[in-house]
Amino acid sequence: MAIAKAERLMNLALCLLGTRRPLSKRELRESIEAYLEAGSDDGFNRMFERDKDDLRELGLVIDTVENLDGETGYVARRDSNRLPAITLDAEEAAALGLAAKVWQQARLAGAASGALQKLRAAGMPEAEDSYEAHHSALEPRIPVHEAAFEPLMLACRDRRAVVFDYRKANAAKPEQRQVEPWTLECWRGHWYLAGWDRERRAERVFRLSRITGRVRSRTGGFTAPVPDVVTVRETVESWAGETATRSALIRLRSGCGYPLRARAVSSRELGDGWDELEIPYGHGLDAWLVEFGPDVVVLEPADLRADVVDRLRAVAKV
């Protein structure tokens, strides 16, 4: 079905770009085989309107023109849909090359490599700097190990609702979630999905490593408005504990928990292989501390300690 729709959209785009005059719905229906098989006029009209909206969302500029007889026609003029020449200097080319290397461990590696080849064929200069000589020693990467990443990335792009099983850190069993995905964010080496939870009727953030099983698509459009990128990013950071409102005091085993040490406001040695750290306390810190297991003991505040204990007990029951 996806291939059939893609072929239909391609044929419609070629018809609109290849004509010298606006084409009516009737002419387009007679020119595209998939439209001939649509059956009723209502079925064709619904299909055509969806296809036209999809092409416009993809960036194709479609003009609507009314002829002398009052009939509506459609055309995609080449001058309105022609991209300007791409000119990049050496520094910009180096930045693109560096960005492509970031995705070498993900399924996006092929797309990133293909995009670079096309840009170089169009005259983009080769990056010549000291980075290439030392990339084997230090190379930025974004790891993507979760099977849910690719289907969720595509669902975010296509504005398509999904359903998946999700196990919270303090839950013994996963629960099914129906989500309208907004965007994916990488924070401290972990991927998070921000979106609208249909059953809870609120925005939620999900850590991809806690998604179990397969991500399935759902029909129908989004039921909630999609916020701007800045708002979504702030939601991810807040949920993951980036927005701190208080401080927490913890004991940390010596030689362990370097991410916690990096965030510490202060630290001191306690002896016997333990250190005491003061770290910012925000929403989601309890889930993060649980990941360090027996190497972390929460001293205060009491509510954070209780949350961590509850999560550990839930994990022990699994």
Overview of the structural elements:
The protein has helices at residues 2-18, 25-31, 33-36, 41-57, 90-102, 109-121, 130-134, 149-158, 229-239, 258-263, 285-290, 302-317, and strands at 23-24, 63-66, 72-75, 162-166, 175-187, 190-197, 202-207, 211-217, 244-253, 266-271, 274-282, 296-300. The chain has 318 residues and is α+β, with helices and mostly antiparallel strands. Strands 7-6-5-4-8 form a 5-stranded antiparallel β-sheet. The chain has a 4-stranded antiparallel β-sheet with strand order 10-11-9-12. α1 (2-18) packs across α4 (41-57). The protein starts with a helix and ends with a helix.
Task: Describe the secondary structure blueprint for this structure.
Elements lengths: L1 H17 L4 E2 H7 L1 H4 L4 H17 L5 E4 L5 E4 L14 H13 L6 H13 L8 H5 L14 H10 L3 E5 L8 E13 L2 E8 L4 E6 L3 E7 L11 H11 L4 E10 L4 H6 L2 E6 L2 E9 L2 H6 L5 E5 L1 H16 L1
Antiparallel strand pairs: 1-3, 2-3, 4-5, 4-8, 5-6, 6-7, 9-11, 9-12, 10-11
Highlighted features:
4-stranded antiparallel beta sheet, 12 strands, 12 helices, elongated, alpha+beta, 39% helix, single chain, 318 residues, 5-stranded antiparallel beta sheet
SSE class: alpha+beta
Percent strand equals: 15-25%
Number of strands: 12
Major sheet strand order: 7-6-5-4-8
The Rg value, from CA coordinates, equals: 26 Å
**Coarse shape:** elongated
The residue-averaged pLDDT reads 80
Order of H and E elements: HEHHHEEHHHHEEEEEHEHEEHEH
Give a short account of the largest sheet: 5 strands, antiparallel
The helix content, as a percent range, equals 25-40%
Residue windows where pLDDT falls under 50 for at least 5 positions:
129-138
Distance between the termini: 40 Å
Please, how many helices? Answer: 12
